[in-house]
Amino acid sequence: MSEITDYDMLSEEERKQRDIEDRKREIEEQKALPYRWSQELGDVDVTVPVPKGTRGKDLTVVLAKKRLSVGLKGQEPIMSGELCKEIKVEDSTWTLEDQQAVHIHLEKLNAQTWWENVLTHHPKIDTKKIEPENSKLSDLDLETRGMVEKMMFDNQQKQMGKPTSDELKKIEALKRFQEQHPELDFSNAKVN
């Protein structure tokens, strides 16, 4: 059972107001960072502004499984620290765009999680409020589409207090077993 938070005790209107305030604070915190970032489920893109005219040889960029550092040679790094989650180093890249921004593409090791931040010591975002770009179920391969549809169905059922697809299968199996064995009494049986 999940624990009740002060957020759960708020009225619908108070929750909306809290969400607006939290989102404003999040935006301000993110604007204060020396970089911009965005993410999809499988990757994170970071853009770090550098002085106009910067060349690749002027940069020091370190991409490691759990660490990222970007800076100009001989100076304090613009950003440096432990990554929020691990990356696939061999699939992650960086490029210098228009001699004024370093674009870093990080492939997530776990492509099924949202990151709260890029570097662990930077402000976090509320990953529960992320609204991913609308992707069509038809864009997914059949296996993934089936998993997503099942998860959506199960989530909907839970919200309505109804059995999930797995629970429905168990109930159906029990019904079939009862039909085949009418001599057995299942009136006190609990399905779990």
UniProtKB/TrEMBL annotation:
The keyword Cytoplasm applies. Residues 12-23 have a biased composition (Basic and acidic residues). Residues 1-23 are annotated as: Disordered. One of its GO terms (cellular component) is cytoplasm. The keyword Cytoplasm applies. Required for nuclear movement. May interact between microtubules and nuclei and/or may be involved in the generation of force used to move nuclei during interphase. This is Nuclear movement protein nudC. It comes from Ephemerocybe angulata.
